[in-house]
Amino acid sequence: MSHSNVNKGILRYGWWSRTNHWIVAICFVLLTLSGLALFYPAFFGLTALFGGPEPTRIAHPYIGVFMSIFFLIQAVRFFTDNLFRRYDVQWVKHMPDMLSNRDDRLPAVGKNNAGQKAVYWIFLLTVPILLITGVVLWRPWIADGMPIWALRWAAMIHAFTAFIAIITLVIHVYSAIWVKGSVRAMTQGRVSHAWARHHHKLWYDDVVNNRDPEGQTRPQARTTTTPERPKEP
Amino acid sequence: MTNHWVDIRNADVVLSMGGNSAEAHPVGFRWVMQAKNQNNAILISIDPRYNRTTAVADYHAFIRTGTDIVFLGGLISYLIENNRYAQEYVREYTDASLIVREGFGFEEGLFTGYNQQDRTYDRETWNFETDEQGFARTDPTLQHPRCVFQLMRQHYSRYTPEQVENICGMNREMVLRLWDLMAQTSAPDKTMTILYALGWTQHSIGSQIIRCGAMVQLLLGNMGMPGGGVNALRGHSNIQGLTDIGLLSNLLPGYMNLPSADLQDYQAYMQTRIKQPLLEGEVSYWKYYERFFVSLMKDWYGNMATADNNWCYDWLPKLSEPIYDVLYAINDMTEGKANGAFCQGFNILAAFPDKAKVFEGLSKLKFFVIMDPLTVETGEFWKNFGEFHDVDPSQIGTEVFRLPTTCFAEDDGSITNSSRWLQWHFKSAPGPGESMTDTTIMGALMLRLKKLYQEEGGAFPDPILNLSWNYRNPAAPTAEELAQEYNGRALEDVLDQEGNVIRPKGQQLKDFSELRDDGTTACGCWIYSGAWPQEGNMMARRDNSDPYNTGNTLGWAWAWPMNRRLLYNRASARPDGTPWAPNKAFIWWNGERWVGADVPDFPLTSPPSAGVGPFIITQSGGGHFFAAEWLNEGPFPEHYEPLESPINRNPMSPTNALAMSNPIARVFERDRANFGSNEEFPYAATTYRLTEHFHYWTMHVRLNAIAQPEKFIEMSEELAEELGIAVGEKVRVSSKRGFIHAVAVVTKRMKPMQVDGRTVHHIGIPIHWGFKGVTKKAHLTNTLTPFVGDGNTQTPEFKSFLVNVEKL
Amino acid sequence: MRGDQINLQNVIARSATTVPSPQVRHGGVEKVTKLIDVSVCIGCKACQVACSEWNDLRDEVGECDGTYNNPQDLTPESFEVMRFSEYENEQGNLEWLIRKDNCMHCAEPGCLKACPAPGAIVQYANGIVDFNSEHCIGCGYCVAGCPFDIPRISKKDNKAYKCTLCSDRVFNGLEPACVKSCPTSAIMFGTKEDMLDYGAGRVENLQERGYANAGIYDPAGVGGTHVVYVLQHADKPEIYSGLPKDPHISPTVELWKGVTKPIMSALLGASVLAGFFHYMIKGPKEEPEDDPDPEKAAQAREIDRREEDRP
Prior knowledge:
heterotrimer, A: mainly alpha, Fumarate Reductase Cytochrome B subunit, two-stranded antiparallel ribbon, 9 helices, elongated, B: alpha/beta, Barwin-like endoglucanases, 6-stranded mixed beta sheet, 5-stranded parallel beta sheet, 31 strands
């Protein structure tokens, strides 16, 4: 038996999911910082983080392409968990309750709630747009061969899309801070049974019933015991 | 130029013909734009192409290359028949009233006296009828059938608007429109300036085209007038200086002539050169020829030249040919008659026609010396440059010496511009590497020759051994010394008629009025006398004050002759001495003397009542319509087709094969086979310069190369479509003499023309680019051009020949 | 003329800068303008060569593309080019329109608006819009911002270049190099007022010569320019090798770099603050306690045994 406590709780994100997430996350933060630096004069000081203005300009697109690759992997792997389901509609209708911490009024959801799914889909939409428009603007490699109208549209779309993506990021980060236990899920991979039951009841049930793909790494450890399902609130 | 650059701004009509002044003379063109914008002048551009001048012109017309005499001859007829010439001017200031000797005639394109055998004229009949005193007879009413005016009228009556349209390919309405515009300058208060360049000169009839322009200006009363004149825009910065200083094989400095072989006797020579007045009381300035000549010989041979030995006349070479021009010299090389050659500042392989022949000539030499600041094509004619100059060095025995020279900014000296201004320039930097100034090289060469003659003797050592060579450093005469020499100095006290000393011994002369024919003065170039008088270097003056607001800045540099800016300026005033019009006031009689904005081209105190003619250089005192002895083709310019013509007859003389092309053009026997027919080579080609380049040397300059990097030719959209050639495609242009490759510039600026019942297409071929330099490498344009020159000057016919074009 | 007063105190606009430029000094500096009279231009390219000489530029030796245009386009080493176009007018007559193409020095410069590098693009009180290359980061936004397609990014140093209107010469009381070199006075230089005045005279002259639509090109869409043209056909500027008829900063650029820029930045800040206040007001969603029932906890522990396959 290991002295490590890394096996306490339910496995929500495997090592690769976490690594993948954090690669994307770090890149995204760097892109946000460098992008903002080039977007608005007030943030220009952020270029210092990258070794100066020109290194910032050079680094930004490379980080972007790098992130896009890992984002794609993550997006594929997380795809099924983020398909919208009927109960998501119910969940959305209870938004005010959710925001006011009246969690007991929320419907049971799967591995991700509608908010998390929305984040997924927003990123799935914005990242490719940022990638494409960013590539159009990429100097010195691509932009020289682009017509000026394309540069203009690309620059505008890139800025607006980035705005949406960054707002989403802020919400995403805040949610993690707000919902205690979430950070542990993405750093250590596991959540407590109570957390899982509380926030993602349907997923918890799946886990218990061994239907969660993230938990199927050790099939011999399956249990035959089905814990009692808590009553629907 | 009879006038000068700045004076163009005084014109009311600017005719740019036989030149593309904006293209080739962009800096001087500022005065054209000033004429347009400040004097509300009209700019007319007549050219085979719509060119850079045309781009800012008010009117333009396409003309078939080489047919300018037809247009101008038609204009002469139009002016006379419609009474739109300057009557008083023509009557008083020209030879119109002089009566021509009986027997003179013109028939079927030939003047009287033609000798078909040796293609020359006996000019006996081309002269005036004289009275007992030797003065010409006149008819001031201009009615005598043999007076110049009537003969001219008769001659040009054949040049109808129909013929102009037929031969020049110019729309008749446009012809009449342009003639009308030009005719308006026959008014006393209006002038037209003619700006021409090599587009008139470089034809087998080039001199006659220019003369025809001068006749138009005389008829319109535009000679000697501000904003008038016939103005040659010279092609090199100092080419005016070249002719002034006598660097043509048949000239001595100051447009004196080298004697021909039949003039072994000094007096006989003088008799042909001293021109006595044709009318009583006229000046006829060439009557002082002996003063100029003797002073030149005193300058060259110092004390050795005496009255007793005819000022060393015998030491002068005598011409056995009319002119040993460059074509002649090259021909001699190919025939093995010349063994060695010096080529100084001259890229002969690129710049002369029929490159293959020039190459052959150079290849047959024993030695060849090239003096140039750049490594030009000529210096490496023996090297293989692949497809652009595919020669076999192992077959060439010529020993080539390259002497690197400095360029103009690396030496002091004067440059004579088109305005006849001698402008002094100062050395701004030393030349690179082992380069030396041309004078240093020539000085050293002279000393070595002298030493060789001293030590080894020779066939005729005297002219070399006795040549004056009194320079501080004999191996390197300075520009100042040479300039003082061409100004001239007093060898003894110079006296006036009363015996007063007007110039003490040893002093610099004031001007050529102080020259004497008794050996007391020495002068290297009489027309330059006054450039460096006792007061100092006039050429270095930089005072641009213009007190009369005529653009005449007499304190700026120095102009020959006598610092006179406008030749024949006496003609700017009426016979009574008052200006023709207030806005054209230039020189006038103030009751005691001639005064005004310029140095009067006239005896200063000769009153109008004396009736002396304003053209003091001519024998009659008037401008000459009738060129009795000066031109080889005849007294009146006549149209002849180029040696290679896109049409099969000369529509002016359709039945006489002898009058198809210039009847006196000199064609070497072997070149006769090198003319192409319009069946094989159907397109009329013309060559020219571009503003981005200067001849063959700016292709060594990066910025010029950037501005115009690659050889191209120009053709009309119509022809391009016919030949299936698209913009920017490579084509092969060939003539009977060779071929070149170039990019096709397909343009609306060239148009097919209807000429004598057929369609004539022009191909424009810029001369630049070669197999040296930093531009894209190319064939030399003059691979294509024919080996024939103007009938008088032998200037090659670069502007009219035939080519074929194929898509590559 | 005192339009020659260029120094850092006279920068009236600066790219990507939140600190406003000094506004107190006024009066001494007049707006300068270069007037290009197309009707007087002979296309000799002296200006092009003078520009390269003064600015120490040596472009590549190119090729002939079947026209007189060379270089065929602006490059980082060709701040200006002559553009030749053959135009057949309404009467069917050919006109060879030759336009010197270079930075127009807009009163409202799109490049400056688009530039993200503080001080890389400045506008002087005399109207000159200048690139300070040492601040340039090579992003190329100026290319997208310019309504006239002028700036070019160098492959050598990844910096943007364009005509400076010879600000260094003007600062020292000289005219721009192109003006100095122009043989026909097709390029003039002076205060904007003087140039418009001179241009009006030229337009009048052209109208007298039959160019009914002659006019000055000083497009209002960019607040006017400090390079103005005299055109024979001012109603059709596009025939002059595509001179834009109504140039203005593109709406896309406006959307990108206009008021949306601070608004979006503010919204981002607001979203962060919103989170903070939400947290403060509503508090976190605390992690729920695990079931205290030991049996159930044991069951749960059983499930936990699904170990992660850590590498």
